[in-house]
Design brief:
The protein has 318 residues and is of the alpha/beta class. It has helices at residues 35-49, 67-72, 94-107, 143-152, 162-175, 191-197, 215-229; strands spanning 12-15, 18-26, 56-62, 111-118, 125-127, 157-160, 201-209, 245-255, 261-262, 270-272, 277-280, 286-288, 293-296, 306-314. The protein has 2 domains: 4-243, Aminopeptidase (3-Layer(aba) Sandwich), CATH 3.40.630; 247-314, OB fold (Dihydrolipoamide Acetyltransferase, E2P) (Beta Barrel). The strands form 2 sheets. It has an 11-stranded mixed beta sheet with strand order 1-3-2-4-7-5-6-8-14-13-10, with helices on both faces. The chain has a 3-stranded antiparallel beta sheet with strand order 9-11-12, with no helix packed on it. Helix 1 links the parallel strand 2 (18-26) and strand 3 (56-62). The longest helix has 15 residues, at 35-49.
Length: 318
């Protein structure tokens, strides 16, 4: 049996007796991010043992969204599942096959909680979608409900601005003559963007560093809180967090050469000052912060042509 033939997709659903919201929870969209998988399996066991009751609506758990990447213990199978997520009649990569299964499943739900972790040290945070708007990039009309769900998860840091910042990076790549798929704004569409396009609300929770033993606990609390907030479970609704920090992404910087390097080991949300050297290009040119702010998603192992790091500023969103 080949590696692919041994794989399968799994979802586990529970439905309460009363009507209610329909929540889907994803783990291991990236195969080396396993905190969500651990937390999901823990909650499933609690429901099956009667420790936790699903009394209304429904919840669907996907413990391992990308089984190929998970089996290989790496971020991707053939490509990043959380980019260019859409069904296709001509699947070429394994992630296309996942999309053909996952996208219809997402469309059957009202809300998505996608559980992730990140490369470097740092505190957990929630990625929010856009504010209500009628634009063409990511029109949205459910920001209030999405923000309320975010505030229930137990995490205190919130970040938005993903897709429009990614789109600005795409425009820069196109202007520089790039022809790869990373130079397509649709390549920035992942699980949450696809879910919002189907009319739902969607959150990415970054639970901590990949190997942080606290990350599965963060993910477990978030699932339990989301179930209670949406009134799917019989647990008391959590109080929304109040001591919040909100940031907005405004710039993405790509790694253009394998010898581009950071000047130090950055962690997400490290502060940077205007003019501070963040890294150096392979030819010795410095990469500078253009203003005071924060570095987000620094990836020292980024492939040339892909996102190296993001920059963020304070926001009044939350």
């Amino acid at each position: 049996m080949s590696e692919l033939e041994s794989l399968h997709f799994q979802s586990v659903s529970f439905t309460g007796l009363a009507p209610g919201a329909r929540l889907i929870v994803l783990g291991a969209v990236h195969g080396n991010e396993t905190c969500g998988t651990q937390a999901i399996r823990r909650v499933i066991a609690e429901i099956e043992s009667g420790q936790l009751g699903i009394v209304a609506g429904s919840v669907t758990f996907v413990p391992i969204t990308n089984p190929l990447a998970y089996a290989r213990r790496q971020r991707m199978g053939d490509r990043n599942l959380n980019r260019n997520l859409a069904p296709t009649d001509t699947p070429a990569e394994f992630e296309d096959r996942i999309a053909n299964w996952l996208c219809p499943l997402l469309a059957q739900h009202d809300a998505l909680l996608d559980l992730h972790s990140f490369h470097t040290a740092g505190q957990p945070f929630v990625m929010l979608g856009p504010q209500d708007n009628g634009g063409t990039l990511e029109p949205f009309a459910r920001a209030a409900g999405e923000t309320a769900l975010a505030l229930s998860l137990g995490v205190h840091r919130f970040v938005d601005g993903w897709l429009d910042t990614y789109a600005a990076g795409v425009a820069r790549r196109l202007a520089a003559g790039a022809s790869s798929r990373e130079a397509d704004v649709h390549y920035g569409v992942g699980t949450t963007e696809h879910m919002r396009a189907q009319g739902g609300i969607a959150l990415t929770l970054e639970c901590g560093q990949h190997d942080d033993p606290a990350a599965p606990e963060v993910a477990w609390h978030a699932i339990r809180n989301a179930l209670a907030h949406l009134r799917l479970s019989d647990a008391p609704a959590p109080a929304p967090v109040t001591d919040t920090e909100a940031l907005r992404l405004y710039q993405v910087v790509d790694r253009v050469h394998a010898e581009d390097a950071f000047v130090r080991g950055w962690s997400s949300f490290d502060r940077v000052r205007a003019g501070e050297v963040i890294g150096t290009r392979h030819d010795g040119r410095p990469v500078l912060a253009d203003s005071d702010g924060y570095i987000v998603f620094p990836n020292p192992n980024a492939m040339p042509g892909q996102e190296w790091f993001y920059l963020a500023r304070r926001s009044t969103r939350v």
